[in-house]
Amino acid sequence: MSAKVWLVGAGPGDPELLTLKAVRALREADVVLIDDLVNEAVLEHCPAARIIAVGKRGGCRSTPQAFIHRLMLRYARNGKCVVRLKGGDPCIFGRGGEEAQWLRERGVDVELVNGITAGLAGATQCAIPLTLRGVARGVTLVTAHTQDDSSLNWQALAQSGTTLVIYMGVAKLSEIREQLLAGGMAINTPVAMIENASLPHQRECRSVLTNMEDDAYSFALKSPAILVIGAVAACKTSSLWEHGLPAMGSEHTA
Ligand code: SAH
């Protein structure tokens, strides 16, 4: 049997947002390496597996990436069923691409399993349609935090006409605001800041571009949070109805 690693997305936090395939992988796992954004409640699907926490949140004590790579390789070569479990989707700001490549170069089979990424989950949980006919023709996922401090093309983002979903932005609110304003985005562009999306302690703070930093401060916004910037960020359950979307159930008529 050839060595194999599953790179699995655990979704944004709510255990009911796990995919059936992720549950199957967890049930088969001998070893599960988990990131710290994974809700440990999902581990109920792998009660017998060995759980290894390899989280590495910005600013905290971290597990070096090379160590994680070697750990996966060692267990896989020993014939263990290895699941690398990541918050959200493994391939959205999750190093899924680089881990898969590293393992494949060493002859390990890799199976990638989608998870619901935090940006999409957070928006939907707050009744924000990231795309909306006549309002937002697309959505752009970006990270505000780059390892090499390389800069995004903020002007292009400001003028893209797409909804922006920004990951890892809590410590960069001032820069995001300034760059988007400098790039020509309107001061009253709606903003939603969503903390702990899909978890029982989810919180949302609605604002507009020019006030987002002050409002986040008053709200004591903390990581993990995503920012949704664009006209659709003004939508709430009731305004969806006002936009004249087809009724999908009584909850949309609130
Ligand atoms: N692979 C993950 C993203 C990892 S990067 C995914 O697809 O969701 C880490 C960032 O994701 C955090 O800084 C935050 O911006 C976002 N994030 C992860 N989980 C979140 C949650 N439950 N609520 C809000 N943001 C979250």
UniProtKB/TrEMBL annotation:
GO terms for biological process, alphabetical: methylation; siroheme biosynthetic process
Pfam families listed in its UniProt record: TP_methylase (PF00590)
Family from the record: Belongs to the precorrin methyltransferase family.
Protein's name according to its UniProt entry: uroporphyrinogen-III C-methyltransferase
Transmembrane segments: none
Chain ranges of the Tetrapyrrole methylase domain: 4-210
Keywords per UniProt: Methyltransferase, Porphyrin biosynthesis, S-adenosyl-L-methionine, Transferase
EC code(s) of this entry: 2.1.1.107
GO molecular function, one term: uroporphyrin-III C-methyltransferase activity
Coiled-coil regions, chain positions: none
The protein's annotated pathway: Porphyrin-containing compound metabolism; siroheme biosynthesis; precorrin-2 from uroporphyrinogen III: step 1/1; Cofactor biosynthesis; adenosylcobalamin biosynthesis; precorrin-2 from uroporphyrinogen III: step 1/1
